[in-house]
Design brief:
α3 packs antiparallel against α4. By secondary structure, the chain is mainly alpha-helical.
Length: 191
């Protein structure tokens, strides 16, 4: 026999408060004539499936895409490993942010909450990995950009302004990923 305890449900003699007529009519009108029997917790803005999270995902995608486009527009970026790493990391960031933006759009359209702990765990792990890769790539690219521009004084032969722009957009993309990661991680830790 199992050593686990078995839950028991004991009914309580508690009177359930009824909705007043105007509140019941309003709830029934919203649900095609059915009374609203669901209780839904308030969504915290920035959590998956909210308009704020959708905006964060779109900003992540936009800044990462601009960074990749600016870096790829230079002819000599493949000669530096840090710049190739930046393009690879931010391409992954673009794919991740765009796919989660599509999930957020779907959740908003069908009015679903994405509070399943397994789903949030996948989002948290993905955000953690992509934000770490993005930050590392931006730091490496910033170091190479400073080396080329300030230490070698070789901006006349290189595309320093494009490298700087791409690196700055990578940092801004990382700043947009961080709130998503921390809010998802907070939800997992508090749940």
């Amino acid at each position: 026999m199992s050593s686990r305890s078995h839950p028991a449900v004991h009914p309580l003699d508690v009177e359930i408060p009824q909705l007043t007529e105007p509140a019941a009519a309003a709830a029934a009108a919203e649900n095609d004539g059915r009374p609203d029997d669901r209780v839904r917790m308030k969504d915290i803005q920035g959590m998956p499936g909210t308009p704020t999270n959708l905006a964060l995902r779109l900003f992540q995608f936009a800044f990462a895409a601009v960074s990749v486009a600016v870096m790829a527009a230079t002819s000599d970026f493949p000669s530096v490993t840090a710049f190739r790493y930046l393009v690879a990391a931010l391409s992954l960031q673009c794919l991740w942010s765009l796919s989660l933006a599509i999930v957020d759009i779907y959740a908003l359209l069908v009015k679903r909450s994405l509070r399943n702990p397994r789903i949030v765990a996948v989002f948290t792990i993905g955000d953690g990995i992509t934000s770490t890769l993005t930050f590392a790539a931006a730091c490496a690219s910033a170091g190479i950009t400073v080396l080329i521009g300030n230490d070698f004084n070789n901006c006349s032969q290189n595309h320093c302004t494009r490298f700087e722009t791409s690196t700055a957009m990578a940092f801004v993309s990382w700043f947009a990923v961080s709130p998503s990661f921390f809010l998802n991680f907070w939800y997992l830790a508090s749940g």
